[in-house]
Amino acid sequence: MGDAPERYGFESFDCAPALRLEASEKLSELQFKVQRERITRLEEMIERLEKRLWLAVYGVVATILAQAFQPLLSALP
Question: Against a cut of 0.70, is the pTM above it?
Answer without folding.
Answer: no
